[in-house]
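cache lookup: miss for this entity combination. No prior model stored, computing from scratch. Input as submitted by user K.M.:
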Amino acid sequence: MGNTLRVGVLGCGNVGAAVIRLLHDHAEDIERRAGGPIEVTRVAVRERSRARDVSLPSGAFVDDPVAVAEAPDVDVVVEVMGGIEPARTAILRAFERGKSVVTANKELLATRGTELFEAAAAAGVDLLYEASVGGGIPLVRPLRESLAGDRIIRFTGIVNGTTNYILTRMTEDGSSFPDALAEAQRLGYAERDPTADVEGVDAAAKAAILATIAFDLPVMVDDVPREGISWIGPEDIAFAGRLGYVIKLVAIGEAVEGGVSVRVHPVMLPKEHPLASVRESFNAVLIEGEKVGPVMLYGRGAGGDPTAVSVVGDLIELARAEAALRATMIPPPGRATRSLVSLEGLPAQYYILMRVADRPGVLAAIALVFTEHLVSIKSVWQEGHGDEAQIVLITHRAAERALQACVRDLGLIDTVEAVASVIRVEAGQP
Amino acid sequence: MGNTLRVGVLGCGNVGAAVIRLLHDHAEDIERRAGGPIEVTRVAVRERSRARDVSLPSGAFVDDPVAVAEAPDVDVVVEVMGGIEPARTAILRAFERGKSVVTANKELLATRGTELFEAAAAAGVDLLYEASVGGGIPLVRPLRESLAGDRIIRFTGIVNGTTNYILTRMTEDGSSFPDALAEAQRLGYAERDPTADVEGVDAAAKAAILATIAFDLPVMVDDVPREGISWIGPEDIAFAGRLGYVIKLVAIGEAVEGGVSVRVHPVMLPKEHPLASVRESFNAVLIEGEKVGPVMLYGRGAGGDPTAVSVVGDLIELARAEAALRATMIPPPGRATRSLVSLEGLPAQYYILMRVADRPGVLAAIALVFTEHLVSIKSVWQEGHGDEAQIVLITHRAAERALQACVRDLGLIDTVEAVASVIRVEAGQP
């Protein structure tokens, strides 16, 4: 294993605290994947005395982000404080000292990105920013690396969870915009001043970052025309539904005649469009490539923990680059502490279709078999067609072993002509 | 720009030819992103004399894949020939000569993966395989890099396009399995011998590869229990529909008590599950991480062009590693040859909601405005509520400029009380 990578974290809010906890809780896995330990040595905070849910010595907390960026016991910097200054100055100072930076700061990238990327290139260091768009969704790396061989024709993204939550409530519950906004605020999905979300400013910053990668063209937030959703009424939602559409706020970037168009506005999407079923506060970006066709990336676009996963993914990449490790990461067999388990003991719900003779007592005989094997039945339907009937059952969760024993014994009942199908049932949404 | 990366391609079928074409057609973009040109110097083919839709000198074609792997004018090897031998031997020979390999060969990885990864590690070279699962969908890199800081709890994937196409036909058209299979064969989605697809063998190989990454545990195809879909009947599909489910063939890997379970079988998914709306031959994998929550990656899971994009993405990563380039890839401003264009000239369809006085002649006055600005109306609805009425219009595609002029003039009609909403309409599925 290589040397320890010492991290200075700028900001200890939601995301910063989640990054520190993740590096601590998953330390062993992260060390294996990074080729060495990753350790937080310094944290810049606004109030040094505040109690925080992270296990670091109190000496690690300092109040000057620039001092953290310059500290000799910091090898790389994680900037999760937000805003333009002092984040910008701290990042530039880190570059000057030959330190790479991981940032989640969309506002800064969409305003001063060009300056920062040029400074990183001049210093020969990295500026990584997976967490700046789409929280925990892998977006920057797939666009920049996996799809690097293709030409992007268009991206269409639901990149703001607040407005998607509001539009979902308006669509599914018939709420008005003010009521849906109030509910979003109550649940913590919207801030007290919701302007940046509902007027599309947040989405415009993300559109600028995505467009910069997708089209190799520096796009800043002020270049992105935007419309918000505060004026959308229940009658628009209702008409959209009647016409087969769903209203979503989207960030669009597309190659058009003469150049590239980047913009944020509400749009009516056909109900069968892949983005139409992205509900609640989830985010998703549909990327259309010339050769690859449509690719969609979906997940939680905000929140401390999901965003921290993206930050730590970038940190692991930096650690591997420092250690000059090759990309192949599959550990040789025997290193893993887990093993494969067989299906037999795993619990699942099952759907069972049987063809039976339409005679009294059939259902009782079937029910008895399930009782004997301690498999409980959730629902059952019987449908007659002349002499024959179909019985469909859905079980509660039962072990594969018990279910197989049931199926075997069901086949022995003389009024059961066939156990035609057995299919596992997924319980619900993840 | 750096040195040329010289590529030997093993196999010139669907994927091989697409890789060669992609490297040629997008050469300029790829060179910029890779830090130097990537050039195909040798291609191993079965019949040297066959005509091929690729522009390479005939001397580039040779019939021995091992010779290509060992050729002095080949720096890295792309293996897209499939099967175990001679692909395995050629890859091992490439490693022995210090050459990294990009492969799309799921069968080989899911059978001899452990041997290959150990050989690559011993030789200090890379074995990259984004294309081996999910065709053009970024899956390996997001799992291995973006989510490397998290612990994967579970993945559930629709990873076989043939069976997903068949199940879509059965669900949407009420087809029987044999009829849906015959249609899939007619369209080229299924092979003449469909066993590997419909019995879940192909999905099991992909499940093994994904599980190996997700759980740091070497899983081979023979470790994966599987059930196919050939026995599923129209009555199962119909019952599933009535109960609120859709039947899909899925590859599942999950952390369970005592270890990891990996398997392939049909499952009933609730209709609101993110995988339930993955239709036709599309693939998608839902990954659930401890911290990141659900992440879904969706796209074309097969086909020459999408798969070639994944292969070339891996090649660009290798080229950058050879050139020891840093990860930051945003070009400084001015290098891009495109520019941002304004919304004004862009065409779109529009939905317009107006509140009007319910009097004769209103609609005629409105229609006249659209005619004057050469914006044509696709559909129109009028609904009265006492003295007031609502008119909803959907236009054909029109430039933003013309639409804005319409909206301005509509507001001048004295029977139009308000143009309440204007929302762009997305034409259809990508």
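stored under new cache key. The CA atoms of residues 366 and 400 of chain A lie 18 Å apart.
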